[in-house]
Structures are given as C-alpha cells and as structure tokens.
Amino acid sequence: MQKVYCATIISTFTNPQLIMGLDSYLYGTRTFQVYHSQVDNEPLEQTTEFQTLIEDTHFKDYPVDTTPWASYTVTYPLAYWCKASAIHNWFVQNVQRGKDDCGEYSVTSEELSRLGNVVRSVLDNPVKAKIYLPNVEGCFFGDQEYAQWYFDKLKYTKSRIEAILSYQNDAIQDEDFRRFHKYGNVIQLPTRNNTFDNFIYSSSW
Questions:
Q1: Residues 33 and 90 both lie in one domain
Q2: Tens of pLDDT along 114-141?
Q3: What is the mean pLDDT of residues 154-169?
Q4: Which of 16, 39, 51, 197 is the most exposed place for a label (fewest CB within 10 A)?
Q5: Sequence-distant (≥ 6) Cβ neighbours of residue 38 within 8 angstroms
Q6: Is the domain of 110 the same as that of 160?
Q7: What pLDDT digit, counting tens, does each position of 3-41 carry?
C-alpha cells in the first residue's frame, strides 16, 4: 500500500500473468474527496461516490478518516508492456533521468506525445529503429532483434498513446465546458468524463 497523507490509494490494475522478465505499466490517477465541502460547523457528510465505493468493496464500517480534507485516489490501467526494452529505455532516459530503479515516475501528457512521435517515426522508417528506439540489454529484458514482435509492440504503444491523449483532451474540454456553465442556467450538462490528475510509469523485473 502506498502511503499518502489523509488519502486512500485504490488500484484497479489487473495483475498480468506471472512471466519472468521486464514488465512495464502506465496508469492514470484521479483524486476524489471523501466529504462534501463543510459549511460552518455542520457535520461532515460523505459523498455519494465514496459511500458507494466502500459499500461495493465491503468496507462499509471501516474507521474512515474524519479530517475534512480526507481523500482517496483511484489508479486506472492504461497500458502494459512485457519485455519491451526499447519503450522502457525511452522512459528511463526521458522521464527517469537515466535512473532505472523500478520506481514510479510521473509522466506528462507532453512526454507521452513525444514518445508517440518517436514511435511513429520508427514505424514510418524502420531502419531508424536502432537510432530512435534501441533495444537495451537487462535481466530478462527479452530478444534484442528488431523483428516483428518489436514493431508489434510499437504499434500497440502508438494505439494506446493516441487513445489516452484523445480521452484526456476531450475530458479537459468537457470539464472546461461544465466549469463555464457552472453558474449559468443550463438544464442538462454533457456526460461527465474526469481528466486524469497524473500519469504514472513503473516497471519491474
């Protein structure tokens, strides 16, 4: 369990099959408040979403933190790679400052976009693979050849990044629309899609 002050971490990431070697993960997070905003000295009131969560996960009677700013963070799965050393190495060099330590690192939308551009460049010009996205050796990091499996992983990466950034951009526009109409006479707002607070990359082997 990750330690966060006055917050609960909820992970929805399904663990992959146990395969020895390099595993890499990308996920998005969103933090929600446990209680509605407190007015004067009124008693704290849990949000409907939080009540539903603890009931559905059978924690209805657990001792909830009673500080007004208590929150919980949900982790959403976005991508998973097995023995994709080239993709992993890109994150190590461009996000982790060269430190390959199986840690968790925050990734910006701009960085994901940059990775997507590099992947597209290699797919458009495969002979540049060793220059733009080279495989790296490591403990069970997989084959070092630039064969079909290598390009299949790039195609997967391209599709995931495009889907993630498309969702995030649409959700930002949706949030901006709802914020703009917050105090207006709007009868029905669009279906709500939250943006991610953060993107996280992690790896293990």
A1: no
A2: 999 999 999 999 999 999 999 987 666 6
A3: 97
A4: 39
A5: 44, 68
A6: yes
A7: 333 455 666 555 555 556 789 999 999 999 999 988 888
Cα–Cα distance measured from residue 145 to residue 174, given in angstroms and rounded to the nearest whole number: 43
Q: Quick one: angle between helices 85-94 and 148-180, nearest 10?
A: 50
User: What pLDDT is stored for residue 3 in this prediction?
Assistant: 36
Helices (H), 24-147: 48-56, 85-94, 109-124, 129-132
pTM: 0.83
Domain match, 65 and 121 both: no
Q: Which pLDDT score, from 0 to 100, does residue 1 have?
A: 37
pLDDT digits (tens, 9 = 90+) for 81-107: 989 999 999 999 999 999 999 999 999
- Helix, strand, or coil (residue 25): strand
How many CA atoms does the CB half-sphere of 24 hold within 13 Å? 23
Query: If you count them, how many residues does the chain have?
Result: 205
> Residues 61, 97: one domain?
no
55 domain residue, yes or no: yes
Laid out side by side, the sheet with 7-11 consists of 7-11, 71-82, 23-33, 198-204, 104-107
Note whether 111 and 94 are within 8 A (CB): yes
Same domain, 70 and 89: no
Dihedral pair phi/psi, residue 7, rounded to 5°: -145, 155
